[in-house]
Each structure stands twice: as C-alpha cells, then as structure tokens.
Amino acid sequence: MSPTPLTIMDCNxxxxxxxxxxxxxxxxxxAYFRALADTDAAIRHxxxxxxxxxxxxxxxxxxxxxxxxxxxxxxxxEYRLCPSVAALRAVIRKHRPDVIEIGSPYLLPGRIRAALKxxxxxxxxxxxxxxxxxxxxVTYVERFFGKLGKAPGTWAAALAWWYARRQYNxxxxxxxxxxxxxxxxxxxxxxxxxxxxxxxxxxxxHPGRRDDARAARxxxxxxxxxxxxxxxxxxxxxxxxTLLAAYPLLCKRLGHEPAVVFAGTGPDLDxxxxxxxxxxxxxxxGFVREPADMAAWYASTDMGLALSGWETFGLSIVEALACxxxxxxxxxxxxxxxxxxxxxxxxxxxxxxEALVDAVETLWRDRASWPERARTAVAYxxxxxxxxxxxxxLKLYRELHGARS
Length: 405
Known about the structure:
The chain has helices at residues 21-39, 85-95, 108-116, 136-145, 150-168, 179-187, 212-219, 240-254, 269-278, 291-300, 315-322, 333-342, 353-365, 370-381, 386-401, and strands at residues 6-11, 43-51, 55-60, 63-69, 71-72, 80-81, 99-102, 127-131, 173-176, 193-195, 227-230, 259-262, 282-284, 303-306, 326-330, 345-348. The protein has 405 residues and is α/β, with parallel strands linked by helices. The strands form three sheets. An eight-stranded mixed sheet has the order 3-4-2-1-7-8-9-10. It has a six-stranded parallel sheet with strand order 13-12-11-14-15-16, with helices on both faces. The chain has a two-stranded antiparallel sheet with strand order 5-6. Helix 8 packs across helix 13. The longest helix has 19 residues, at 21-39.
C-alpha cells in the first residue's frame, strides 16, 4: 500500500542567510526532501522563508521556497521577524499543508494560528509541530533578567515557561534535539516532546579535510603552537567575550601566542576586529559559506571551543567532532552532552575565563591523548546523520497525519 500524500511546510524566524545552526538544519532538510521527492511522489516540502519581498522559488518537482515579507531585526543581525499574516495565509492556502513545523517561539506561533483562522472550512487543518531550536526561557529570558538579580531572573523565567506551555502545549508535537534540554522541558510541563537529534554530513565533515599547508601557516614556524578555531556567532552567548578575556592569560600560561581563527559574524564583530588588530596570531576570515571549507578549518586546527551553555544541539560542535577536533565546552546544555559522551575534551563553567585557560592548558600539555580523543570524537559524530534525523521526523509527521508508511 503506497503512503498517503503528505505536504510538509516549514516556517522559522530563526533563519539567517549568513549562517547559524538553524540555517544549516533547513538547508539539509530541503536537500533531503528534494532528493526524496524524486523517488516518492507522495512527499511535498515547502520552506517558508522570511524575506524582504514575496516570491516563489521552485527548487524541485515537489519542493518550493516561499519567500514572505517580514521585518528585519535591527543591528548586526540578519533575522527577519513578524512575517505577514496575509502572506502566510496565502502560501498555506496555496499549498494546503498537512503538517506545519514552527521553528521559532516568539511571534510565529501566534501568526501561524492567525493565518489558519477560518481555513478549516476550506479543508485546511494542518497538524502543528514545534521545534525547540532555542531554549529561550533559560537562554534569553532568565539570562537577561538575571543580570538584574536572582529574583528578577527567576520570576522572568517562570513567566517564560508559562508562555512556552501556552504556546507549545497547543501544538500536536514538539521536537527537541538534546536529551538534557528535553528533560528540562518536561520538568516545566511541556507535553508531547519527541527527541529528534540533528545530524552531520559525514561526507563533508571528516578528518581527511585536513590541509597541512593551512595548518603549517597557522603554526607560523612554531610546531608546538596551539591553533584554535572559533566558528560561532560573535556574541556573548557563544562565549566570544570569555575567549577574548582569557587570551592574554593563555599566552602567558602556554609560553606562546596561540593562533586563533574567527569565522562568522554577529553583534560583537567589532570586538573580533579589535582583537585581530591587537594580536599578531589572531585572524578573521569572514563568513565561511562552503561547508567543505568549514570542515577544512575544523580539521586543520588543533582545538575548538563550544562555550555556550545554551545549545539545544550545537551543529557546529558535532561538525567539529566529525573532523576529529579536540574541544573545550560549556558544562551545560548540549555542549556538555556532546563532549562528555564523545570523550573529545573538557567542560568548563560558563563565562569563566580562568577555567577556560586551565582547561586549554591541561589539554595542550596532554597532547599524547589527542589521537584517542579524536578517534572517539569521530566515532560519536558518525552516529548522528541527517538522514536519520529527517527519517525520524517524517515518521512522526506521518503518524500525526494518520498515515502509514
């Protein structure tokens, strides 16, 4: 018996054209369904992308990107928020999705529901799935208000969890990609949560991407020079300021200036540029668009840093592991989960520059352990693939829709 036809629509205000794990997730998902649609005529996939203007981009026989108008977030960010309800309603009416996956928690759930209002009479009543890409009650709300004191942080987090329950418990399912975060969600009353780990493209990210000439240039004539790659958004949340604060002390402890390569962009870009001007062995390479080039940087440097304590999966962490990179990671969230399960490095408290220096020095002085750490890192990452991720999602979509594959 052939599967019931299924149209899946993805909507996400966390999409950014200049990088980030959410962007990678959607690019990989679009590629997966594009390939699947070639062999399974029952599958259609629509990506709804916030943009400056409305337009339709056909990417395959059964795959489409619908660009909908949305306001650009001010500053050095490239996110667009608050997509037009009328535009959302138009693309929903046009494609008649069976499942809509909502990838951001703030304005989008309400705007999707507003767009769906009255469409049930036309036979359009999709199942709603939330993807918990950001652990926002802790990552943004509690952390921000906690700067005012413990009580404001606790009160604000409680309000955020109330809002989360109100939004996500009205959905038919919620996806989350870390068991640590999943347990926290369930403790705070979020229901129908499903563990859906994201993936890594092991054909692109692997130790064979190492470029010996690139590695030698970074060493700059000192074979024992530590080389570090920081390929995360330039923000306090990702630990950038912790690294910059730790660097002078790290130079003293190691007896040399480690080479640090920064890739990406973000609100703290000016801090990165100032640090590069001040330190001879720091460099900024801009935003790396090609995954293969990103893999080469991971594989050609000694160590990576995953200092955000608020990762719900951390794609860049797993990509670094797949390339055999040694890691120092935050002792919270998915960063800790990946590093402890892979044995690839050490964990440190969030925003603790001295602890970061201690961990980096410990690993640098224990270079004999690096080959084994790299081996277990690669083995761990190979257990997380995009095909497994999207096959699991598709199974859950079909179950929600009442179909049988």
